[in-house]
Amino acid sequence: MGRADPVRTVGRPAAVHEAAGAYTRTAIVLHWVLVAVIFTQIGLGWYMTDLPLGPVRSPYFALHKSLGLTAALLVAARIAWRLTHPPPPLPSTVPPWQARLAHLNHALLYACMIVMPVAGYLSAEFYKYPTRFWGITLPRWGWENETLNALFSGIHRYTSYLFVALIAIHVAAALLHAWRREGVVSRILRPRRTRG
Ligand code: HEM
Ligand code: HEM
Across-strand partners of 136? Predict the structure, then answer.
């Protein structure tokens, strides 16, 4: 763990002092549950689009749509939590330019987490079948339209490439911080002991 912010830690017991530079338990659980869901979604997306046209594809598409809409709900919860619980300041060992790049990477990751399910849902809404959410048919307001379907499918596909690139950079940066023992990775593994 890097040097903690003196303003935030003065007068607190040692255990709290050490854990002050960490995310909350809720932020950590949402981060890792979404990592699992997003990795599954990307794998499933690539796998299912390579399958031959016909009935063999439909269970995979149905699962991808339901899990993708579940991801949208988790992302909404995560953003709501993030807006009310600011992240801890980075350790002072991280240079300001790296902190700025990390901030940009996180902002773009959030943008992809929003665009992916929204574009997927819109693409499905302008296709011939209604969208189902874990077996429940959702009310349909879209109509069959090849142009709109192709537009949102294209956004879904090209955003997924950007998403994978951003995730690769994010993971590489995390591994670099772990190797340098800067205490950045432990922020998203061990929750802070303070409230909030
Ligand atoms: C975090 C959420 C999601 C991720 C990470 C994700 C990822 C992907 C990926 C990587 C592909 C393959 C793209 C390609 O190479 O063509 C794909 C395809 C697809 N996804 Fe998603 N997806 C998500 C959410 C959704 C949602 C919510 C829906 C619909 C309700 C959806 C519907 C589709 C459909 C229909 C395809 C087939 C290709 C197309 O028509 O665009 N996805 N997805
Ligand atoms: C689907 C893949 C992933 C996505 C979308 C993602 C997204 C994010 C976002 C948006 C943040 C910023 C949290 C905030 O301040 O609100 C974050 C933090 C973090 N993530 Fe990930 N993450 C992913 C995978 C991973 C993996 C695999 C690792 C570990 C190798 C990791 C390690 C971290 C660490 C260490 C932080 C804290 C960084 C800091 O304190 O500034 N992430 N992640």
Answer: 133
Exposed e or buried b for every residue in 69-84, given b needs 16+ CB within 10 A? bbbbebbeebeeebee
67 ligand 1 Cβ < 6 A: no
Topology of domain 6-188, per CATH? Fumarate Reductase Cytochrome B subunit (1.20.950)
Which ligand gives the minimal distance to the CA of 26? 2
Domain spans of the chain, in order of start: 6-188
pLDDT in tens, 49-87: 999 988 999 999 999 999 999 999 999 999 999 999 999
Q: Three-state SS for 157?
A: helix
pTM: 0.91
pLDDT of residue 171: 98
Q: Is the dihedral of CA 127, 133, 108, 33 positive or negative?
A: negative
Pocket test for ligand 1, best of 64, 151, 159 (most atoms within 8 A of CB): 64
Going from the Cα of 170 to the center of ligand 2, the distance in angstroms, rounded, reads: 7
136-184 pLDDT, tens per residue? 999 999 999 999 999 999 999 999 999 999 999 999 999 999 998 888 8
Q: Which residue shows structure tokens 């953003």? A: 79
Atom of ligand 2 at shortest distance to CA of 23?
40
